[in-house]
Specification:
Elements lengths: L4 H5 L16 E7 L2 E6 L13 E8 L2 E5 L2 E5 L4 E4 L5 E4 L6 E7 L6
Antiparallel strand pairs: 1-2, 2-8, 3-6, 3-8, 4-5, 4-7
Length: 111
Amino acid sequence: MKASATDLLALLPGPVTRKWPSGERFVSALSHGSMSVELYAPTGSDPQTPHDKDELYFTIAGRGVIRIGSERHTFGPGACFFVAAGVDHQFEEFSADFATWIVFWGPVGGE
């Protein structure tokens, strides 16, 4: 399996939904068993809500701040963050070129 950030970014924005009135800002890349990988590139603000699986974020491009629970961390290309299932988190103050891989895995509710 292989995924290319450049190819996936070209598919954004995705379908328009109530949550994503300007089009979805994520696209599925790979999946196997309980693991799935998405490319996420929000614009302006990050409307995501807590997920039901554990997740890893790997920053591809851009800079900003991620809030995980009550903690805030700055990030740039190459940064990696773990977010446990159900934990509130959002990207804040991010640059226009921000893009990240998201890896979800494991059982609903986390490990």
